[in-house]
Structure formats: structure tokens, C-alpha cells
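Fold these two proteins, one after the other.
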Amino acid sequence: MLNALRDPLKYGFAVGRIKVRETKMLGSNRLDRLINADDFADQKRILAETDYANFFQEAKTPEDVEESLDNYLAVLYEFLEEVYPDKQILSYFRSRYDFHNLKVLLKAKYEGKPIERIWSKLGMLEIEKIKKAIEESELEEIIEPYRSALYEAMERFEQDRDFQQIDIVLDKALYRYLYEVARKQKNKFFIGFVRSLIDLVNLKVFLRAKILNREPKFIEDAFLNKGYLEKEKLVSIYHDTLSIVADKLKETPYAAILQESMVGQEFNLDLFDKKVDDFLIHYIQPVKYIPVGLEPLISYIMAKENEVKSLRIILIGKLSGLSAQTIKERVRVQYV
């Protein structure tokens, strides 16, 4: 498989198209212009110079911005599916949105409420079909790995009546699936990327549980396997102060994230999220110049999703009246 991914005849065209797209990314300078724009109308004039031009013409509200950015990513994935021959790699990224939608639909079923507009159109599963299947508890036609994950989540919820069990079960299924896709590719960069991603999710669960004063058993239940960090290690330091936790994990690649996320003696989870995103961008930057293979695709998708996230912060921040300085502090490191 690795040799196939290096095949310049098969993948050279796709990577060439991706590299051209990379040259059109916004970059830090243009994001700075957007941050310092007078207002949202001024921001739209700046975006009119970019490949986001057609997505914000009618946008006026934060909800419009969210929808416009989702539409942009949907078109981006259509482009990638058109040019990239290995569809399983693309399904790897889009499955994250499917699992998110399963959480939304399952919680709506048990809460007895209509679905709010928080499901994503970036998934691959047909939303109305899945919605009907979940409402009627008829899951046979849903494909794997979603079907078995749904069965388990429904069983766990009906035992405990705890909505958090839905998140735990579906997150475990998602990351188990992501790891298996990466493992089958036999690509060290890809496997390492997924294992780091799993570690960072585990660390966030750990920090949130400490802040909410949950029992250590919660960490044991929610822990995702296949990362580099060991569950026993996290459980053993669970009752330590946050500063000691940061010190005991100083030999890991995540030490800087933990240290820089502390404000006084407290962790700031919003800051942690930003540092995680910055870490992942730094992780993929070294593969930027690999001419052919899987790495250019993964790095481009991650870079574009990171760009979209920054754009969301900047545009909604401006519409919400945040200062340029506050917005700038929240914007992620850019790939280009």
C-alpha cells in the first residue's frame, strides 16, 4: 500500500492539484487583515479576493457564517474526492462528522426533542435515513462501524440513563476506526498523527474531569486506546495538583501544551484547545515538501480545516463585537 501511495503516476496528478490549492490558502498576513478589518462588510470585501469569495455574499449573521463555512468545506471535500484516488483516506476525515451526527441524533431521540441545527452536513451518511433508523431503533441497514457503535451506545444509555455514555461509546468507536484506517495504510506519519490525536483527546478528558471533580473511574471508562500515553499513568496522577500533573508529563511531547494552557494554578480549556490545534499544525508542517504520497493529502486537509476554524473565530468574533486583540489571541497558528 505504501508503495502504491508513492506511485507518481497514480497520485502525482492529485498531489499536484492539491499543491496548487495550497498556494491559495489565506496565510497569516491575510488573516491579520481580516482581524483588523473595520467590520464584517470590510471582511467580506477582503474575502472576495480569495476562493472563499462565493460563500459569504449573502451572509449577515454568525449562523450564516457557520453555514457558509460548512458549505465551503463540503465543496472542498467534493474536490478532493474528485482528484484523489484513495476514497478510504477521505472517509477517514468525513467519518468524524458522521460520528458527531450520530451523537446529535441519539441524544435527540432520548431527549424527545427535535434536532437542532447542530448536525453537520460534512458527513457521508444520509441524515434522514439515519434519523429514521435511530428513532425506530432499526439499525440493520446502517453500515459499520456506525451500526455496532450505535447498538452499544443505546445499550449503555438505557442501562445508566447517562447522556455522557453516548459520547464515551461513540468517541471510542470513532478513534478505534481512525486508528484502524491509519494502521492499514502502514504509513508511520499517519499512524503517529492518529496516536497523538488520541493522546490529546485523552488529556482533554483528563483535564475536564479534574476541573469537574469527577471520580478517577470516569477517566478509566472514557480512556481511548492506541495512543502513546498509558491509562495507568494518567490515573496514577489524577489526584495531583494541575501544576504537578504538568510537571509529571514534562517528558511527553505535550508538556508545552499543558504548561502554556495554565493560567495561574488553573487550566484554561479554551487555551488548551488552541494549543492542541497549534501542536497538530506543527506536527504536519515537516511533510509539506513531500512531493507524492499520503502525507500531502493529510496535511492539506488538516491545514484547511485549521484555516476554516480560524476564519470562523475571526468572522464571528467581529460580528460579536470582540476586539482585534482578543480575536488575535484565539486564532490558530497557520500552515502557510
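Now the second one:
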Amino acid sequence: MLPAEKDAELRQKIANGFIVETEDDMTPGYKAALEVILTVQGDTELLSAPAYYFASKDAPTINSRLAVYAIIQDELGHANIAYRLLEDLGVSKQWLMYGRQPHEFKHPYGFDQPLENWAEMVVANGFFDRAGITLLADVHKNCSYGPWQRALTKVDREEVLHLRHGESWMKRLAKAGGEARQALQRAVDWMFPMTLEWFGLPDHLKKHNDQLEYRLKGLTNDQLRQVWMSATVPLCESIGIKVPAHFDAARQEYVIDYEFPVEYDPTAKRWLFDQPISWQQVFQRWKKRGPMNQTYVAMIQGNKHGTFGGLQWN
């Protein structure tokens, strides 16, 4: 590994297009930033599996339930890719899987929520997987770490299939009308703001941009949020589902229709749009983790009477 004083030199090489291939090319700062972003990706993929599994029980047909099982298999494979890359950097995969407490996993708060019906399952594919594609497609295009950039070719293609599953079912539920459409709207009502938070701190509040300067990603948080809304808002508008955001023609960007961020009631899965909060309060909520955090991690770690938490998966 390069000494820390070589960091400015490495950042300049990366800005000129250098691709990092091994630990010998890294400085301690680069390696630390890479480990953080890989851990977030791996944990996000991993913890989507139990969340999707519970929701799959409400699938309308056996074929649609099997489709979710295929998605779960893909997500576990994606987690393994990220953890395998971390293993190359000296991070124990055994520790990543079994050595951490539930609150130490670094996945988005959205995957600490219960997905309780089919509408929530498909909106998770439509919104959460869209967020994943937005983030990982940017990494795939811009990342300076060669092994991760190449591995994402497979991940991106499979995530697109998850997204298509979600969006096609969202259209079907909206078209069905009645209770199906109402359930879809209720799912969107809490999952749309949840995904807006997913992209993190607004650019004007960020103090450190190591991931951008090391080119571990190419777009800022606000730019990524715009990419996500540019696909999601038109989709919802096209099927008559309301979202708290719109395109502002004068600003040529999507605008959130409430003071962002706001308080969230995890028990009722309801956003309190009349109660704005600071990002520090958002981080505190994330740090406490959500209502399903311990259950989902227990299912993964297998401490519930059998391999992979056998009883919990029944």
C-alpha cells in the first residue's frame, strides 16, 4: 500500500483516468473509503433478502412468489460479490456476516421496515431497486476500482430485471383499481420519501467528498436523487399515483413538495410532513435502526434454531 503522503498524488492520477487494481495502488485513505462504500452495498443487498421474503408470502400466484425468490437469490449473490471484494482487502467475510450486531450493518433505513403485502413488495422493487440501480450504474460507469467496476456488469443486469418486475406490477395494480390501487398508493406514500432519504445528505451540507475525489462514484447525492426522481415521478404520474414531488420547468429539475427531511413514525409507517427535522435527527433515527432490524439480521445470521435462521424462514 502507498504511504498516506502519496494521497494527493493518487487523487490526481485517478482524476487523469488511473484505474486502481490492487491494494498496492491504494493509500490508506482510498482503502478506507472503498471499504465503506463496498460494505454499504453488500449490507444493502443482504438485508433486502429477508424483507422481500416476508412480502413474498402475499404473492397472488405461485409464479409471482417464485419470481421474488429468484430476486432474493440474486440479491444474496450481489452481497457475496461485495463481501468477496472486501475479503481481498483483508476484511473477514465471516465477521461481516456473523461478527456484527444488528445495528452495525450499514444498509438503508428502508430495509429495516416491514414489507407487509404485495403492493409494498412491488413498490420496493420499483423504488428501492431503482435507487440501487441509480447508485450502482453510476459506480459501474465511473468507478476507479477496477475489480468492483467489472463485477457490477452482472449486478446491474440483474437489478434491471428486479426493477422491471416492480414497475410492471405497479402498473397492473394501478390498472386493477379498487383495493389493489389503494394499497399501491399507501405503499408509495411511505416508500417514496423513504427512498428520497436513501441518497443521503444534500450536497450543500456535505463536508467530505472522498468518494467523489477518489472516483468511487461519479455523481453527487443531489444529482443521484434527481436521476431517481426523473424515472420514478413520471412512472407514478403515468399510472395516476400521487407522489410528493414534481418537475419544475423553470428550474429544469424535480422538486420535493415538502420541507426535506421530515419526521417519520415507523410504527404507523407515516411521514409527518408538518414536522421538519434536521439531518442530524435523521442520522439519529438511522443509527437506532428500524423496527425489523434485529429480526432480519437474526434471519441472516442463523441464530434462530438452525442454519440461516431456519425457523424464521418458515
